[in-house]
TrEMBL record:
This is 3-methyl-2-oxobutanoate dehydrogenase (2-methylpropanoyl-transferring). It comes from the Bacteria. GO terms for molecular function: branched-chain 2-oxo acid dehydrogenase activity. CDD domains: TPP_E1_PDC_ADC_BCADC, TPP_PYR_E1-PDHc-beta_like. The lineage of its organism: Bacteria, Pseudomonadati, Bacteroidota, Chitinophagia, Chitinophagales. It comes from Ginsengibacter hankyongi. Its cofactor is thiamine diphosphate. Its EC number is 1.2.4.4. Keywords: Oxidoreductase, Thiamine pyrophosphate. E1 component of the 2-oxoglutarate dehydrogenase (OGDH) complex which catalyzes the decarboxylation of 2-oxoglutarate, the first step in the conversion of 2-oxoglutarate to succinyl-CoA and CO(2). PANTHER family: 2-OXOISOVALERATE DEHYDROGENASE SUBUNIT BETA, MITOCHONDRIAL (PTHR42980:SF1), 2-OXOISOVALERATE DEHYDROGENASE SUBUNIT BETA-RELATED (PTHR42980). Residues 352-528 form the Transketolase-like pyrimidine-binding domain. GO terms for biological process: branched-chain amino acid catabolic process; response to nutrient.
Length: 688
């Protein structure tokens, strides 16, 4: 039998949740931001929250205010987010109601929560993945409960999101790796105006049957006693057995979908009545009355809840708004790597290929950092990457640290959010730039926004390796450049090395950076097999060599006298463009200066602008299709900043504006820039 104290606590918090819903509804003009409440879902949410310890993790979804109440957050705290106030402890007024994040010692940890339906499944599964790894290596970062209990992870989901492919990716990885995670699916039969029977052929429990190893149970989520006993049992099982579980809780939806989508817009009177009949609050009240609790006592609890909610709402309304001057804070957290250190070209070291420089950098990183792991498609023991960019690493560090994943770009990228939150430092790989698109949702929705929307509590420390570029017959799906797409996503950093020394230095800096960094690695430079790219090989830097992100490099200087005489131009480029530019410059006697950007974000605008002002003539060179590219945007910035110093329009050269790189080598050559095309533009600039 459940202790009466627990039942009374649940009743008090349910009364609080109802009073909050009623208050918001009565003050719609004040509660102007869109919000959802937990009415109808309170029982399963509280029953879940009551099982958790500070060592655990939970990802609530946008209807889970009762979970937050059950964890110990006050109505006032939640209301500050409802009203987007400056003292909102979760996001500082940047996020919707019931989008929490929390890092502390008194409650379970909560990573940043987004509005995108079902997207939390992958990052939250990444938490369980991280905890499993820390437990395996006996890391001091692995925290147990005060009684020695092992941590569990709970991912709360609405039933409509189970049709999302990324939820299936999470389930697949969880059962494959036997992760300690509980998926709590709250099924109210609606997905805004889409009913369950027009969207799904099965409920969550039936769907979970297809994932071998995912234990499951269906319950009445409006019955507190059943919900509490089931969640207690499930949490205890997962703590002990360390395997995934799905709880499918059938619940009524008593409030609106959100304040902006009213229930009367699309639901029939019969439907509303049938849900109201399952209201969990009178159910629990009756159970308490049957146990001998006086009705006057229960009515007093309701009255006190209303009074407290009213007072806390008034306090929240009176709270200060956010300071607009701080709107740009927390996009990134500071990096420890601010200057170039170590020996770039130690005497006695041999030249290495770019692909090996990356391999050696990661090997040293993993030797020095037990929290570092590497995973992605085909990077494991048998192959070590399709470009051999991870060769021998699994043999040295073990399959628990270097391993293959399924074809799941969304999981590869999104899991880094949860992994990073536990203290694990993931290095992951998307096999080709052309295949990053399935992962863009996670990259944009979860990875890039986590630091900003958590006010710096949950930056995502990860390195995402992405081989890119054409290299001679790679064809339409293995030759693409994707920097403009990635640069449109704010909150991530992007490096693009063009030689082995930069590769190693930037890889080390990217790993040490507490923010997400994408390493764009040109496949045509990996092995220096493309004619003219021999200089991509360089002396291997020292073990402690780091190259800060955001520092461009002048790799070819023009003659000073010719600069003074106005007989020079500069080329701003990166990646393969460096080698087209260097080859073209051979035709001009010290009249061309070349800047290798090395990092596309942050961008070394100081060096770019000072170089352009010095020459007055500039070409921005890229391998991407030219129209609407990063290169064109950069040319626009240069034109604005350097306008008074320009002697000619800023030129841009990129690939032809075709949907894909053709397979045939002659067609590929016709599409891409090359030294001859660059030379034509240099001549044009020098003629001004």
């Amino acid at each position: 039998m459940i202790d009466k104290k627990i039942l009374l606590k649940a009743f008090r918090l349910m009364c609080t949740a109802k009073a909050m819903t009623d208050t918001y509804e009565a003050n719609r003009q004040i509660c102007k931001y869109v919000h959802a409440t937990s009415r109808g879902h309170e029982v399963i949410q509280l029953a879940t929250a009551f099982q958790l310890s500070p060592c655990d993790y939970i990802s609530p979804y946008y209807r889970d205010e009762s979970i937050l109440l059950g964890l110990g957050f006050s109505p006032y705290t939640l209301m500050l987010q409802l009203l987007a106030k400056g003292e909102d402890i979760f996001t500082g007024g940047r996020e919707y109601y019931s989008h929490p994040n929390y890092r502390g010692v008194d409650k379970p940890n909560i990573i940043h929560q987004s509005s995108a339906t079902g997207m939390q499944a992958i990052p939250t599964t990444g938490i369980a993945q991280g905890l499993q790894y820390l437990e395996f290596i006996n890391s001091p970062l692995y925290k147990k409960g005060k009684d020695g209990e092992l941590p569990v992870v709970i991912c709360s989901l609405g039933d409509a999101c189970l049709t999302e492919g990324e939820v299936s990716e999470a389930f697949q990885f969880a059962v494959l790796k036997k992760l300690p995670i509980i998926y709590l699916v709250q099924d109210n039969g609606w997905g805004i105006s889409v009913s369950a029977d027009e969207a799904r052929t099965m409920n969550a429990s039936e769907f979970a049957q297809g994932f071998k190893g995912l234990q499951r149970i269906s319950i009445d989520g409006s019955d507190f006693v059943q919900s509490y006993e089931v969640m207690k049992s499930v949490v205890e099982k997962v703590r002990e057995n360390r395997q995934p579980f799905l709880v499918h809780a059938k619940v009524p939806l008593l409030a609106h979908h959100t304040s902006g989508v009213r229930k009367e817009f699309y639901r029939s009177a019969d439907d509303l009545a049938s849900h109201a009949a399952q209201d969990p609050l009178p159910k629990l009240k009756k159970q308490l009355l049957d146990l001998g609790i006086g009705e006057n006592d229960l009515n007093e609890i309701e009255s006190v809840a209303k009074t407290e909610v009213a007072q806390q709402f008034a306090n929240a309304v009176a709270a200060a708004e956010p300071d607009p001057a701080k709107v740009e804070q927390h996009v990134f957290v500071p990096t420890p790597v601010t200057e170039e250190k170590g020996e770039r070209s130690p005497s006695g070291n041999e030249k290495v290929l770019m692909v090996d420089a990356a391999l050696f950098a990661i090997r040293e990183i993993m030797e020095d950092n037990p929290e570092a792991v590497l995973y992605g498609q085909d990077v494991g023991r048998r192959l070590g990457g399709v470009f051999r960019e991870a060769a021998t690493l699994a043999e040295q560090f073990g399959d628990h640290r270097v391993f293959n994943t399924a074809i799941q770009e969304a999981y590869i990228i999104g899991s880094t959010v949860g992994m990073s939150a536990t203290g694990v430092k993931p290095i992951v790989e998307v096999q080709f730039g052309d295949y990053i698109y399935p992962g863009i949702n996670q990259l944009s929705t979860e990875v890039s926004k986590s630091c900003y929307l958590s006010c710096g509590k949950f930056p995502v420390q990860t390195v995402i390796r992405v081989p890119v570029g054409a290299y001679g017959g790679g064809g339409p799906y293995h030759s693409g450049c994707v920097e403009s797409l990635l640069l449109s996503i704010k909150g991530i950093m992007i490096a693009y090395p063009a030689n082995a020394a930069d590769m190693k230095g930037l890889m080390k800096a990217a790993f040490l950076d507490p923010n997400p960094v994408i390493m764009l690695e040109h496949k045509g430079l990996y092995w220096s097999k493309v004619p003219g790219t021999e200089d991509a090989k360089s002396v291997e830097p020292s073990r402690d060599y780091v190259l800060p992100l955001g520092k461009a490099n002048i790799i070819l200087s023009a003659d000073e006298e010719k600069i003074i005489n106005g007989e020079t131009c500069c080329i701003i480029t990166y990646g393969m463009g460096v080698y087209w530019a260097k080859e073209a410059a051979k035709k001009f006697d010290k009249q061309v200066e070349i800047v290798d950007l090395r990092t596309l974000f942050p961008l070394d605008e100081d060096l770019i602008f000072s170089t352009v002002k010095k020459h007055g003539k500039c070409l921005v060179l890229t391998e991407e299709q030219e129209n609407n590219s990063f290169a064109e945007a950069l040319a626009g910035r240069i034109s604005k900043e350097c306008f008074r110093f320009l002697d000619a329009p800023v030129e841009v050269l990129g690939a032809l504006n075709l949907p894909a790189v053709p397979m045939n080598i002659l067609l590929e050559k016709a599409m891409l820039p090359n030294a001859e095309k660059v030379a034509v533009i240099i001549n044009k600039l020098l003629d001004y």
